[in-house]
Each structure stands twice: as C-alpha cells, then as structure tokens.
Amino acid sequence: MWAARQEHSFLLRYVGLADFIVNLTGTEIALAHSEAISSRDTLGHLLLDQALPMVLGLRGILTLHASAVVTPRGVCAFLGPTGAGKSTLAASFFTAGYPALGDDCLAIKEDDGFYAIPAYPGLRLWTDSAQALSTDWSNAPAVAHYTSKRRILNAPAVGYFPVQLEPLTVIYCLARDASGNGLNGLPEPAIEPLRPNEAFLQLLSASFMLDITDRSVLTRNLRSIERLVKGVAVRRLRIPNGFSSLPKVREAVLKDLGALDLGATFGQR
After folding, report:
1. Which residue from 6, 79, 84, 199 could staple onto 66, CB 3.0 to 4.6 Å apart?
2. Residue 252: CB partners within 8 Å, gap ≥ 6?
C-alpha cells in the first residue's frame, strides 16, 4: 500500500487491488477504482482493516497495530509486526472466556485516562491457528481473495462483544522465536518492563499515520504516544514458539495483570 496527498484529498492505493480517496478531514472515504480480481470480501477487508485505521489516525485518534482483549483488570493489548501472533493470542484469550475487543487495530481515546474503543466482533486467523484453538472455521468467510486467512465470527462473539469504552491497562509488545525452542532458548513465556524510550519507539512504530508530511499531525501523534507511555504500562512479552505454549502465555499475562498497580504511573511500575 502507498498513500499520497493530493490537492483536496488523500489517495490510498493498494497496488493491483483498489484505490480509495479520503477527504482531508477524514470524514469521507470513497472507492475510486478496483481491479476485476478484487472480490467483495477483499474490498471490505481493505476498507475496514487497512484504510479505516489510517483515517482514524488522521482524525486525531491514536491507533495502533495491535489486537486487544478485555479482562477483569481492564484491556490488555498485544502489539507487534505482522506474523507476531497478535490475533492468535487474542483468539486464545477469547476461547478462555475473555472478549476480543479488536483485531490488528487498537483505537484509543484519552479522557482522564486511556480507553480502548471497541472495533468489531471477530478475528482473522490462519486455518492452523483456528484448528489449534479448536475453533470452528469450516464456514468462516475468507478475509480476501489473496490470503487463506478466515474471518472467524460466531454467535458468542457477537453476543457479548463490548459496546462501550473499556479502560486500557497494559500493552504487551510481542517477541517470539521461530526456532521452536522459544526465544533465546526460553521454554517459558517471560514478561519484562520496557524503558520509557523503548516503549515510545515501539508504540511509534506501530501507530497508523496517513499524513506524515503535516507537522501538526506528527506533533499531535508524538505527544499522544508520550502521554500513553506515562499512563499505561508497556511491557515486553516473550513467547515460546508453538501453539502448545498459548495456555502458559495466558497464565503469565493474567498473573502479570493481577500484579500491576493500576494507580501507578509507568515510571513506578
């Protein structure tokens, strides 16, 4: 995907798939062009999961490339690059009874604290992830024609999906290993705090920004991230590779959540 600012709008181009036009205030999105191969599922995915997070950022809403779940201690978010396991980990929590608040896009509202804005019920999973979690994906719709991911939507997810703002408690930055033996040979998940500068860079790299040429937009985003780092715990979550480690990862996260002082600032954690 590439984006360009035009005289009266932004152009979002998904090469070989579709073009969207966004007005300068982020209040209107229009499909300008689509390739014949782009299915309705593909266009919906590009609009909902790709273009809309960029537009939210344009409208002044801090938006991160993260998945999130709701716990009794507040929302915990899982942040990381594509393939880090954000959706799979969120789905693991969902199967254990913790509602999934959003997949790959965490929109945050700041109002005397930080709150996660609900996205939509459902997660996008590879079939091996769905099978490992005993999720029924047989009738799940395709995310897009160019990927084998499925959009896992079911009645329980819709039935108790959060509809109001939820307090954001902690953001876990995922680090995992592809060797099969865990990161650095670690057989168990591990959680450690990040220094403020590390946390800032992690959040900055994961933020959706459409207009990187507008100094006021950049300044607003940087200041939002700076306040977020001070107000919400940001921690590194090291995950051993393999689906069998998911129960242990859930246990480690819930234990860490239980130990957090929710009234403390980041620097005191």
Report:
1. 79
2. 188, 189, 190, 191, 237
Partners of 12 in the beta sheet? 3, 20
Residues 6+ apart with CB under 8 A from 236: 172, 173, 175, 191, 192, 193, 194
| Cα angle value 103/14/62 (rounded, 5°) | 40
* pLDDT (tens digit per residue) in 149-170: 988 865 455 567 888 999 999 9
The three-class DSSP label of residue 247 is helix
Host domain of residue 197? 62-268
Helix (H, G, I), strand (E, B) or coil at 10: strand
Single pTM value for the model:
0.89
Residue with tokens 């703002």: 165
Contact (CB, 8 A) for 23 and 127: no
What's the number of domains the chain is made of? Answer: 1
- Which CATH number do you get for residue 237? 3.40.50
